Amino acid sequence: MKYVLAQLKQYKKDTVLTMGFTTLEVIMEVLLPFITAMIIDEGLEKSDMPAIFRLGILMLVMAAVSLFAGAMAGKFAASASSGLACNLRESIYIRIQDFSFSNIDRFSTAGLVTRMTTDVTNVQNAFQMVIRIAVRAPLMLVSSMLMCFWINRKLSLVFLVAMCFLALILAGIMKKTSPVFKETFDRYDDLNASVQENVTAIRVVKAYVREGYENRKFRAAAENLYRLFVKAESLIAVNNPAMMLVVYGCITAVSWFGAHFIVSGSMTTGDITSLFSYITSVMMSLMMLSMIFVMVTMSSASIRRISDVFEEEPELYSPKQPVMEVADGSVDFDRVSFAYKHGSGEAALEDIDLHIASGETIGIIGGTGCGKSSLVNLISRLYDATEGSVKVGGTDVRDYDMEVLREEVAVVLQKNVLFSGTILDNLRWGKEDASLEECRAVCEAACASEFIDRLPEGYDTWIERGGSNVSGGQKQRLCIARALLKQPKILILDDSTSAVDTATDARIRRAFQIYIPGTTKIIIAQRISSVQDADRILVLEGGRINGFDTHENLLETNEIYRDIYESQTKGGGDFDQAG
User: Fold this and answer.
1) GO MF annotations for this entry (predicted)?
2) Which helix (H) or strand (E) element contains residue 86?
């Protein structure tokens, strides 16, 4: 709860004003039945018209004040609850930005989306109800009870019995429903995951005619959620009959005993009239409190899920006194081992000892799952080495400010991502203030200008989310251009020219020598032709270094490299097949 309330920030004033206006509204409403009793006893029964007129005017003023206070309380409650939800979503989003890949893997993308949407909405609704009804209901309840005891102490004991009975019912409901709601909101993650996976992979779904299977999978998740909600709501449904039993029981008891008190002369007609008004107020307060209990029960599960995000400690963080400058593009792996799950015994990389000089062009080649991407991910510190150290510019990557390090390491990943916006917007991810001329230059180097210039709107062409309106090769070239715009000290291409033809691939590599001659270039590729002109080529097998030398020397000394070369040049098979 402390994480949620900390997000009130600038809306604390609105919260206090809501409670203040609600208090004023309750005071006016509590006094109105008392004035009604005075009109009956002192005006009607004594035929005192001036008193009736005077007290009637007072009632109108109090009603107007109550109406104004209620309207203002509603306004400030809406502002405070919406503001809390806005701040909460923003804080969760900012927190997620600090997460490492392993942190995000523990929650899943769908789970984080559910927390920022459904769970925050539950908290928003509960908070709005709490600052209004949770203030109004107890105040109304206590004030009405005090007035009832002031009118007739013995008759008011009926309310105490009713409240104890209702409290037991509500406690039982909360105990039963709380774990059900927790499981319900966890199932929302499965539902969102099903939708996200289907929409993201819609082309594959349609290509393999799997719409029926996906529909059945979604239906199963939706029906599971339905069953849990029915179970929870069935338990909560007990609340209304119990409430009605208490209300009608109190009315019956007060009518029966009140009649005896009037006959005996210990109560007036005005007293019993006002007492019925207070009965209604007490019962309505109890009903509102029961609604709050239900809402709090639902939102408590959401609060715990949101708190999990805030309590999750990012595994990667900058040191207290970080190095703020990367000296050059040299890269050193000193006896590095790495596993995605610490202690699992499944190492992606083992005993990597590798030294790359600044400005070198290094090719990396190897079979599927040999650790190529894992190796380069350690350079920009997307993960930390399990053993050993990775140095960039002679300094351990863990000693750098992470933003400073990543500004100097440009990575074009296997899964290229473009964002909704123009081509220029996407290019300027590499450099926010880049001019059109700078963007043209990097696109020329990445061989992207040739298709951009053919577009009717050129660099102002709109890119759909994920780059769905451009081809795979065009997307790769735009991502390379975006990386070049950073003018990094290290450029990593993780199989990022696989969708372009060999001639274009060769032109891009030649352009690197002209456009970024001093940059260290690390090229992961499946094609020998993409790396054979590199200064040195690293051959990986099973997470270990199998060879590290020039193209010519590897052909003579490295069997794996020679087999790959012969299989590709002689057309004997694809990368992962023997020649």
Assistant:
1) ABC-type oligopeptide transporter activity; ATP binding; ATP hydrolysis activity
2) helix 49-97
